[in-house]
Automatic annotation (TrEMBL):
Name of this protein: PAS domain-containing protein
UniProt cross-references to NCBIfam families, sorted A to Z: sensory_box (TIGR00229)
PAS domain residues: 12-78
Top-level taxon in the UniProt lineage: Bacteria
CDD domains documented for this protein: PAS (cd00130)
Transmembrane segments: none
InterPro entries assigned to the protein according to its UniProt record, in alphabetical order: PAS, PAS-like_dom_sf, PAS_4
Lineage: Bacteria, Pseudomonadati, Pseudomonadota, Gammaproteobacteria, Alteromonadales
Length: 167
C-alpha cells in the first residue's frame, strides 16, 4: 500500500466515524451555511445532507435566534476559542423530538452544544464545528432529583410546623 492509499483509507475511516458517532456534527462557514451534516443530525432532523448543504442555519431553523447565535459564534471565529451552551441555560438549540417516547418523559431532546474553530492550513478560521450532545437522560434525572428535593423540603417544613404546634 502506498502513502496515498494509507491517507485515503484514513480519510475514509474518519468520514465514517463522523457519520456514525452518536453526536450531532455540523460544520458552518462564516455566513452560517451548512457544509457538513452528519448522520446524527440527519436522523434527528429528518433532513438529508443534500437538503441542508449550502443553506443557512437560520433558513433551516427559523426558531434559532440569529443575533444570539452570532454572538456565541463570533469569538470562535475571531479568537479560535470554544463556546458552549448547556441545557440548563437553554434546553435545546434544535427542537428535536425525544427519540425515547416510551421510556422518556420529555417531548423534546435536551442538548448541550460546543462550537469549535476549524483552522485551515493557512491558519484562518473560516469554518466552525458545532457538536450537539443529547443530554436528555441527564436533564430528566436532574429535574426528578430537584423535584424530590422540593417535596422532601416541603414535608420537613410540614413536620416542623406540626411539632411546634401539637394538637
Amino acid at each position: 500500500m502506498t502513502e496515498h492509499d494509507d491517507s485515503m483509507a484514513e480519510f475514509h475511516w474518519m468520514m465514517d466515524m463522523v457519520q456514525t458517532v452518536d453526536v450531532g456534527i455540523v460544520v458552518l462557514d462564516r455566513d452560517f451555511r451548512v457544509k457538513v451534516w452528519n448522520g446524527f443530525m440527519e436522523s434527528h432532523s429528518g433532513m438529508l445532507p443534500s437538503q441542508v448543504q449550502g443553506k443557512t442555519l437560520f433558513e433551516l431553523f427559523p426558531d434559532i435566534s440569529r443575533k444570539w447565535f452570532e454572538r456565541k459564534a463570533r469569538p470562535v471565529f475571531e479568537l479560535g476559542t470554544r463556546a458552549f451552551m448547556t441545557w440548563e441555560q437553554r434546553p435545546y438549540l434544535f427542537k428535536f423530538p425525544n427519540y425515547r417516547p416510551i421510556t422518556g418523559s420529555e417531548d423534546f431532546m435536551y442538548q448541550n452544544l460546543t462550537l469549535s474553530a476549524l483552522t485551515s492550513a493557512a491558519g484562518k478560521t473560516d469554518h466552525i464545528c458545532m457538536m450537539l450532545y443529547d443530554v436528555t437522560d441527564v436533564a430528566v434525572h436532574k429535574k426528578q432529583l430537584e423535584s424530590l428535593q422540593v417535596r422532601m423540603s416541603e414535608q420537613q417544613e410540614s413536620l416542623s410546623v406540626k411539632s411546634r404546634n401539637p394538637v
